[in-house]
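Mods, move this if it's the wrong board.
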Amino acid sequence: MSEKNDGANRDATKRSARERLQMERERQKTRDKRRRTLIVAAAVVGVLGLATVVGVIAANSGKGDKAAKAGPVVAPSGATGKDALAIQTGKDGAKHTLTVWEDFRCPACKAFEDNYRTTVHELQAKGLLNVEYHLVTLIDGNMRGTGSLNAANAAACAQDAGKFTEYHDVLFQNQPQEVDDAYAKNAKLLELAGKVDGLDTPEFRACVENGTHNSWVTKSHEAFRAGKFRGTPTVLLDGKDIFSDQANPITPQKLKEQVEGTAAGSGGGAAKASPSASASGSSSPSPSAGAKAKSSSKTGSPTAGGTPKASGTGTGTGAEED
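Not the wrong board. Structure tokens:
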């Protein structure tokens, strides 16, 4: 009897072991199935993410291609300089010329404008200074987008209407954050045109919407690259980079003294130099040729030395695109 009971117990133990083994196998199958599901889901998310990135790149590439194929070069009214790539402001016969390379999306350019605008306008009103503006699309290349191009085209359209200076100033005063490509939207550019008396006309709107001067802007940027300037803003007084002397940093007052010929030992103005004499073509987070700067779209107050400050990101404020 005892042997029968022992046999029954062994059978029961074997069945229990088999059942436990079977249950463990079922649990393992469930875990494997769940793991495979998670892996597949992760793969799908990865593919969708990659597709999104590729789509963004393709979209931006498409915009760049469109800009490059914008048609013939149409210079704005009154454009001057080599290949008519400069927009000149000020009175004829001014003794001094300030050459400015800038990008409407560039924070350091905004800082320069905010700090020096009043002084420049004052010197122009006295007939002492002309300014030649060269428009650049540096931030479009660094940050992607078309805001630099579209804003520059709109500014050229404002030049056609005889309103360049006013609109130029409005664009910098209302500059969006560097990463915000708000100026890529023509609606925004047209909205800001409403701040300039007499600019928002059917002719101006058509010029903006059609990208009439896009190829001209692209050619201006090519000239900037060929000049091997460090970045934007690049500012030259009579051919000399005003930010090159870091031992004696420029200020709005010093600029005024140089132009008016009142600076000690100035001899009446800045010495002549090659525009690219101090341009190395290297990447730099600060304005061209050594301006220690930091820009902020939130504040336009001058720094202690009057030099524009560049943002800490260094993206596009003074570095050429790859």
